[in-house]
Amino acid sequence: MPHTHRTPIDRRLLIEGLGKGLRVIEAFSEEHARLTATEAGARAGLTRTAARRYLMSLVHFGYADTDGKHYWLLPRVLRLGQSYLEASRLPRLVQPFLQQLSMRTGETANFSALDGHEVVYLVRSHSPRVLSIGFHPGARMPAHVVSTGYAILSAAPNDVLQDWIEAHDFVRFTPHTVTDPAEFRDRVAAARRQGYCAADQLIHLGLGGLAVPLMARQGGCLGALSMTFPCEAYPEDRHLRELLPPLLDTARSLRDIA
User: Fold this and answer.
1) pLDDT tens digits, residue range 187-211?
2) pTM
3) 206 in any annotated domain
4) One domain, residues 62 and 100
5) Radius of gyration for the alpha carbons in the chain, expressed in angstroms and rounded
6) CATH code at 214?
7) Under 8 Å CB-to-CB from 38, ≥6 apart: which residues?
């Protein structure tokens, strides 16, 4: 995808069991918080026997627990994601810029990246409002329902974008959600021309989003900077007049050092 470059690895050097164990962890979700070995195997593409061995290993090492039939993850599994946030330079670099952006605009600011067909929110700076809105770090959203998805994909080559669209599930969240692949492609193209994407109530009624791609100095898209705001506070194009300029300024400042 546009924000990553993966080095090819000789498959002879791979530990297949590690990949299978990670697939078992990823089998759990909000809708599947407790799984049997059979269910985990089906979701991870493994046999029941293999899935049970991985699940028991996760229990042994403190990443999961069981009542003998069902399994569920424990907080220790958060260490896997926390290690990325602590070791990666980019989230730490972005954080103070987001704080300045929030103080300047009074709205919540985020930095996120694309992981397959989902946007993952990595860094957030809370709005000075008493009630802060938006997505917490670690939250994952389908890319077609948040402005960041459009912004990041606007930096993708056309063939990559087309493959992504063909494989994506355009689920509806609100009456405003874009579910037509052709319309989604047109909106990504508009974001590419404009250098930003504005989203209107695509995932939550009453909430809008504004995002710009964060480009690396050497080229390539690192993710997106975005803002979440109540639509009623920004009638007509007020969000473009008041929020877009500081958002673009922040992206330009980060591009010089990212």
Assistant:
1) 999 999 999 999 999 999 999 999 9
2) 0.77
3) yes
4) no
5) 20
6) 3.30.450.40
7) 48, 51
